């Protein structure tokens, strides 16, 4: 029940952040990769006769999606790192140039938790003796910023893109192997729903929010996206019954 | 230079969080919406003769992508809210059931910033007089969790999905209006690159990371995704020159 309190707490938090960043990237890539190419292929299979076009569109989508998400993840992570550094430089200047304002900000942080100035004063005195720690304190408690892990951007981009490609190939495989579009669609629906359920269950286990509930969620998202894409493509193609 | 220090700080931070959540959702939806349907349509236009199929695949992708991202955003936001509540309940129990452990955790938080026990003691004494604020303090400073805004999940889902649809329709419009695939592709490239540049510049202005740099980034992502999808589709279709 009280695992956090039992462990060394800072170790626990850091371990949690490290792994959760990679897990989050895999989850981002896989959940979209399993869903969007699946739904696109299902949609097209209801409207075009040739499975060649379904495969073509699916692979083009995987290429576009993995690059968009991977590069997007890269730039987002690099932006986070740069934002952290520039905010840190600003705090470093501010504790020198506007010392009194920054002292006042410390009191304000504690006031939000009904800690009065007298109780906060010893903490401020201690931080003032150690400017580097004062800056660390302001980064975390004033601005709510964590220092991003080094090389996070590259790893994030490759993890997201790789997971998207891996996820996207699963629903496409049947269209590559079976020439009949309807048979391929059925096979694709079956293996993708199984993959979505396994992925959701595993994600629920890892994140700790329950395997069954997460499995139902991932199936719902993938199923809803595929059903809407299928109906839309049929309607537009004049095949609606 | 010191805008943060000049304003009331907590107001500044809250205003920043509120708007950044909506802006972030719009950015998420628009950047993928402008990029992936654009790249898919460009890729297919190099491989299939009929612009009807390009439009069909593009609309199916927009349907699939907006549902996957919108529902995904909804579940992520709801998950955040539930995680916050369950961690809050745990902290509420812990400050009653394992008061000493929780006190020790406060000392540990301050020790990370070289603030010794004597200096931290008055803060602890003050927090102990006000259990609700003690829990607030632990949520923010031990666990690094912010209370999510109410109804965040619904708004997040609709904002992301709407932005994805709006972004995705821009590159598809030429294929709907111009029957020649090559002419439509050229028009789609021009208007989408303009839209990506405007979007990037505006994003850079809003987030404060420079308009030119962000415009170049969004053009790079969209252009790279479209170029790879185009080459891949042509290669697979045996049209490679």
Automatic annotation (TrEMBL), chains A, B:
Membrane topology: Multi-pass membrane protein
Pfam families, sorted: VIT1
Compartments where found: Endomembrane system
GO cellular component labels: endomembrane system
InterPro entries per record: Ccc1_fam
BP term (GO), one: intracellular manganese ion homeostasis
Keyword flag Transmembrane: yes
Transmembrane segments: 53-77, 157-177, 183-202, 214-233
Keyword Membrane: yes
The protein's name in its UniProt record: Uncharacterized protein
Organism for this UniProt entry: Edaphobacter dinghuensis
């Amino acid at each position: 029940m009280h695992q956090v309190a039992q462990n060394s707490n800072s170790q626990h938090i850091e371990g949690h952040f490290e792994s959760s960043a990679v897990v989050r990237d895999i989850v981002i890539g896989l959940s979209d990769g399993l869903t969007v190419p699946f739904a696109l292929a299902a949609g097209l299979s209801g409207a075009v006769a040739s499975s060649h076009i379904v495969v073509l569109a699916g692979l083009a989508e995987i290429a576009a999606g993995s690059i968009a998400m991977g590069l997007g993840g890269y730039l987002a992570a690099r932006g986070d790192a740069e934002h952290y550094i520039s905010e840190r430089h600003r705090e470093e200047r501010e504790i020198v140039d506007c010392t009194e304002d920054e002292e006042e900000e410390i009191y304000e942080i504690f006031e939000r938790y009904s800690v009065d100035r007298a109780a906060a004063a010893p903490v401020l005195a201690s931080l003032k003796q150690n400017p580097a720690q004062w800056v660390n304190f302001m980064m975390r408690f004033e601005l709510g910023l964590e220092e991003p892990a080094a090389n996070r951007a590259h790893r994030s981009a490759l993890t997201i893109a790789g997971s998207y490609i891996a996820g996207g190939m699963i629903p496409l495989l049947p269209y590559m192997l079976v020439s009949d579009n309807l048979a391929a669609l059925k096979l694709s629906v079956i293996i993708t729903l199984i993959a979505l359920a396994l992925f959701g269950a595993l994600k629920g286990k890892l994140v700790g929010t329950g395997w069954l509930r997460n499995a139902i969620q991932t199936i719902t998202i993938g199923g809803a996206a595929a059903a809407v894409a299928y109906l839309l493509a049929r309607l537009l193609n004049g095949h609606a019954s």
